[in-house]
Amino acid sequence: MTTNPAILDELRELLPDGAVLVDPDLTEGYRRDWAKDPAAGVPLAVVRATSTAHVQSVMKWASAHGIPVVPRGAGSGLSGGATAVDGGVVLSTELMRDITVDPVTRIAVVQPGLLNVEVKKAAAEHGLWYPPDPSSFEMCSIGGNAATNAGGLCCVKYGVTTDYVLGLEVVLADGTAVRLGGPRLKDVAGLSLTKLFIGSEGTLGIITEVTVRLIPAQPPASTVVASFTSVRDATTAILAITASLRPAMLEFMDRASIGAVEDAMNMGLDRDAHALLIARSDSPGADRAREIDVMAQACTAAGASDVFTTDDPEEGEAFAAARRFAIPAVERLGSLLLEDVGVPLPALPDLVEGIERISDKYDVLVAVIAHAGDGNTHPLIVFDPAETDMERRAHIAFGAIMDLAISLGGTITGEHGVGRLKKAWLPDQVGEDVMKLTERIKTALDPDGILNPGAVL
């Protein structure tokens, strides 16, 4: 792979002044996403694009010279999907931040660099709402959300990113820009190519525009908070709740994550509880009170040691904020290996208890938080990188948790993506035939393998 200075000069000529970064002090911050992949390479350059045309120019140049390109949004990814490769280019879309909201059609056309929270705020100005809400919604980008099919806290009722994407503009490996879908709620013309690129983690093309569906603003919500003396009791309550209704939120925190959040936020959470559930209803009128009562009764019947309900939106949001802060709070305890394994709901108790056994077996702290209503858990493995043996045990536990999820009919990733950190386990989940089909699709769209090499496959 060439690093001839003339090649870089050619790239600079295709782009505005300052768009190409080569200073190591500047490019260092683009080598890793939040997963902090230790295998990150040293890029030849970082390109900060501001238009689809710029992305096309980069890909035509990269295709001509066989140079790998790693797409990057806000760098908030948790699976190493935006890890730089040696001699490649990191193509950042962080400066692509335009948005247009059409309140009549109830859509927004968004460039990929705009943050999730900014899309929500733009929609709210028109009395509308963009539902997908990762815990990192204040720092993650819409392009990254689409590339990983991000989920979030309210997805148990409202769905994930793919449920709100109506159209995409995507730049392919050879620099061709294609428009897929558009501002139509119903459209089955041709193959469902829009869905193909959502969740593809930059391995098939680079998303340069997203058309998202908006809905009327979320109604006021009421909240149930329940503490449990055992994880099994909490998961019993989860299954009882989801058997009878679709909560607007149903989140789980274990004892370790409760303690970490309480240390950081001083909210008065019960440190002695082994599990905490935070559930919400935003149904209209009397249905909201009925659903809150059903959820509270399910928690009591499952053995909750304390059940608290509130109709105050601000009070309820404080508990949701505590759940959102769980990962940063646990991260204060040490370095993290983050997972997002998921299972069919009936298997959730076995998954959570199995993670506890893995934690004990390898003598590492594993704090568990979960979007419990859809079976998507986030085991957070804490370790001290200065202790070599502890780090080794943490990585073994990381793999054991994914093996456990697969054995329970689950997935190695519910919303963070496969990236580079989990790809070794993908064949075990999907099987040889699906891997071969995936490779055929990848080869058809990226025959030279220059788009995000090393990710997923």
For this structure, the CATH topology of the domain at 99-216 is Uridine Diphospho-n-acetylenolpyruvylglucosamine Reductase, domain 3
Gross geometry: globular
Tell me the structural class.
alpha+beta
Give the helix level as a range of percent: 25-40%
- Low confidence ranges: none
CATH class of the domain at 99-216: Alpha Beta
The main sheet orders its strands as 15-12-14-13-17-18-16
Biggest sheet architecture: 7 strands, antiparallel
- Number of DSSP E strands: 18
Describe this structure in words.
This protein is α+β, with helices and mostly antiparallel strands and 457 residues long. Among the domains are: 5-92, Uridine Diphospho-n-acetylenolpyruvylglucosamine Reductase, domain 2, CATH 3.30.43; 99-216, Uridine Diphospho-n-acetylenolpyruvylglucosamine Reductase, domain 3 (2-Layer Sandwich), CATH 3.30.465.10; 219-323, Alpha-Beta Plaits (2-Layer Sandwich). Helices cover 36% and strands 20% of the residues. The protein is built from 16 helices and 18 strands. The strands form four sheets. It has a seven-stranded antiparallel β-sheet, with helices on both faces. A hairpin with a 4-residue loop joins strand 17 (365-371) and strand 18 (376-383). The protein is globular. The model has no long low-confidence stretch (mean pLDDT 96).
